[in-house]
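dude i think i finally got it to work??
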Amino acid sequence: MTATTTSVCTSASTAVYPSFSSYVRARGPVLQRTARSLTSNPCDAEDLLQTALTKTYLAWERIEDHRALDGYVRRALVNTRTSQWRKRKVEEFPYDELPEREAAPSADPAEQQALRDAMWRAVLRLPARQRAMVVLRYYEDLTEVQTAELLGVSVGTVKSAVSRALGKLREDPELSCAA
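look at this
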């Protein structure tokens, strides 16, 4: 809490509520840390605390239990910060025409088809059991459990066979040339 903040609150409150002034002097640093945790920078924290203390000062007579002042001020801090957040301006700039999107370079459809053909030929070169598992897992989009049930094998068998099949596909010379 800066000296300016404390002196403003103290001088404003001395005339009517000396207990408010002593409260701010005693609890100011703790409340400043709370305000700082709610904002993104120290200046905003000081402003937030000033606003919360102003609200507390205006309600000083209505606060019945002065032992619970920290809770009252913290609630004022949170409510004030929430109000500030809700009131923030969203900068929108209307335009008559929408800006043109930059077209992403699209892949050549012929190259995509050639890669799909090379992948299918590589899958066909796999042993029948591995091929079946790869087709069910990746072409039919079945889970490992569903694949295992359909083929009558364990889930571990599906995992290991698919792993070996993917290793063979990664090493396939036709795929490495196509990619």
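Residues 18-38 form the longest helix (21 residues).
im so relieved honestly
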